[in-house]
Amino acid sequence: MTYIIRSLFTVALLVLIDYYAFQAWKTFTRNHEQYRLVFWVVSGLAYAMLIASLILVLNGTRNAHVFHYTMTIMLVLYVPKIFVCFWMFGEDIWRFFEGAWMSLSGQREAGESFIKGRRRFVSQLALGTAALPFLSILYGVWKGKYRFQVIEKTLEFDDLPEAFDGFVVAQISDLHTGSFDSKDDVLRGLNLINQANPDVVLFTGDLVNNEAKEMHGWESVYRTVKAKVGKFSVLGNHDYGDYVPWGSAEEKRANFQSVVDAHEAMDFQLLRNEAVELKRGNDALYIAGVENWGKPPFPQYGDLDAAIERIPKEGFTLLMSHDPSHFDEQIKHHNKHIHVTYSGHTHGMQFGVEIPGWIKWSPVKFRYAKWAGLYTENNRHLYVNRGFGHIGFLGRVGIWPEITVMTLKRKSTSA
User: What dihedral do alpha carbons 86, 92, 97, 98 form, nearest 10°?
Assistant: First the structure.
């Protein structure tokens, strides 16, 4: 019942947005009734798709493609309309005070309406402003989702073992394989990892959207990733199949096992609350991985203590944990010093504005304090990867898919 009430509220809100946005369209298209009809036909088709998606969910039908396409269409249509509504609402405030002033000052003639008609130039301005997010979102769907960026970072440590000075870590996260529609574009992104010639590649979870069958035909694509020492991975919240209905508990377990097996098929060593030791001569570096651990409503399958229990107290440790909230909740104050934590999960909401050295903003910041890039607290580092893939909205606007290349350096002891 709660789901139905929320769905009805959503549809009602969209109708209200449409009604308000239509005021600008109607003013702009005076004497062109056919264009007004186009507005409601397009909106009606969007409503039909949204309602069909809601019905599928109510019937327990798993259809991720319908959900993703619906979400994308709604964003393409309604984010620009929200921009229009701001202008229309602002004009209404002006019109109200203008009418009140004319009434109080006696300037309003008898029989004249209290509120004057809408001004065409305001509607033109509103629609012109809405064109920017409209075109940006279209670009995000067409090109932005595969506009891979390589972000390079260098971190220095007093206690990095000498043999690992210059050690290169490449990180990817949130593949969400079921959302990809172009193997050539994905291969182009993965090749950027190989060009960096990393010592290790870390994949920090969300291999699929929900189901193991998304991986069919993709194992060989991911096997093209190369690393000099090894490739390691962990599970993300989407890998457990918790977000779709299953016919039985056994069906869900079988799906999960297939997701686990897929990591081996793509030549990644999956770390499930465990660690591996990398040796160079007498020096060692440790890579640990925990299963997903997030603040509710996200699951907490991870066991940090189990993951690092075999690591010596002074061991140099790199940790993979899918959800960055784990860092604040358990990692940064843990009695074992964890030097770098690698996370993903947020995707930077696939929408925002980033201009290096000036601005980094996304709506996801209201949910996650640490949502993209490097953070340092208590002499421990967290790096939040913006994600390689996408989900829900089949695109990216301003927050581009990321490959992180991090070089670990030993601080010079010379004066």
Answer: 120
CA distance 275 to 310: 8
Angle between helices 64-104 and 33-58 (to 10 degrees): 130
CATH code of the domain made up of 149-410: 3.60.21.10
Please state, in angstroms and rounded to a whole number, the distance separating the CA atoms of residues 238 and 205.
8
Pick 9 or 187 by higher pLDDT: 187
State the Cα–Cα distance between residues 383 and 376, nearest whole angstrom: 9
290 or 33, higher pLDDT: 290
The predicted pLDDT at position 114 comes to 64
Query: Alpha carbon 69 to chain centroid distance?
Result: 16
Instruction: Give tens-digit pLDDT for 345-361.
Output: 999 999 999 998 899 99
Amino acid identity of residue 328, one-letter, is D
Q: Give the residue, 61 or 92, on which the prediction is more confident.
A: 92
User: For 87-116, what is the HEC assignment?
Assistant: HHHHHHHHHHHHHHHHHHCCCCCCCCCCCC
Q: What is the pLDDT of residue 277?
A: 98
Domain ranges of the chain: 2-142, 149-410
Dihedral sign (CA 85, 89, 94, 100): positive
Tokens of 275: 């660690």
Residue 26: what residue type? K
- How far apart (Å, rounded) are the C-alpha atoms in residues 393 and 179? 9
DSSP code of residue 386: -
Question: Amino acid letter at 193?
Answer: I
Check if the beta carbon of residue 386 is closer than 8 Å to that of residue 365: no
Mean pLDDT value across residues 303-325:
97
Q: What tens digit of pLDDT does each residue of 103-152 get?
A: 777 776 666 676 677 788 888 888 999 999 999 999 999 999 999 999 99
Q: How far is CA 271 from the centre of its chain?
A: 23
CA-wise closest residue to 314 among 333, 334, 283, 336: 336
Chain mean position to CA 401: 9
Q: Compute the distance between CA of residue 300 and CA of residue 292 in angstroms, rounded to an integer.
A: 6
